[in-house]
Amino acid sequence: MTITMKNIIRVFLMVLVAGTFSSFIDAPHRDLMTAGVQDKWTELFDGKTLKGWHALPGGTWTVEEGTIVGRSPVTEQRHGLLVSDRTYKDFVLDVTFKSIRGNSGIYFRTDVVGGIEGVRGFQAEVHPTDDIGGLYETNGRAWVVKPTADQVSRYYKPNAWNTMRITAKGRDITVTVNGIVSAELKNDPGNASGNIALQLHGGQDMLVMFKNVRIREL
């Protein structure tokens, strides 16, 4: 074997050992970084109780088999709302939902104002068939982003569990349903902070379910 060949083999072995050692050292570091990100999430629903929430008059909210279940009869004109005890400003909010009957929504950055509708601010729309993932401002501008039926069909799974993510940072808002963007606003003048709330629409036969409710403050 020539000296040149020996040198090539020596260099190759040195690189191989160095790479293996680096991977060994970096792996725990990567795990720690990942764990740090995961630790920032806060569960807003413990799967057993409605601790951390309070209900406004209208409809009923129960916990059944690890799921928040909202019901309201068509004779109830008030919007039934399950409102977070805390207010939030900048965050990523994840909610898994199944819409069976009636028009529901996930409110965020809202003010509790009383009256039939109960709050003022944005809701990300939850519905069995229409407008899912759109942005509606209650006691404000009404529809701000209303998706078309064709758009909804691309990301929504009827009669199944769907996951919605709401990202609110500064004046920018993004809503995704099952990982696909359904609404996006830049430099929006709406509320910059407020409560989170789950909705039962008044005057409708309502049945809707929520689970895996968690938030990561930014």
From TrEMBL:
Keywords: Membrane, Transmembrane, Transmembrane helix
Stretches assigned to the 3-keto-alpha-glucoside-1,2-lyase/3-keto-2-hydroxy-glucal hydratase domain: 40-216
UniProt GO molecular function: hydrolase activity
Entries under Gene3D superfamilies matching the protein: Exo-inulinase, domain 1
Top-level taxonomic group: Bacteria
Keyword Chaperone: no
Chain ranges passing through the membrane: 7-25
Regions annotated as coiled coil: none
InterPro entries on file: AL/BT2_dom (IPR010496)
Name listed for the protein in its UniProt record: 3-keto-alpha-glucoside-1,2-lyase/3-keto-2-hydroxy-glucal hydratase domain-containing protein
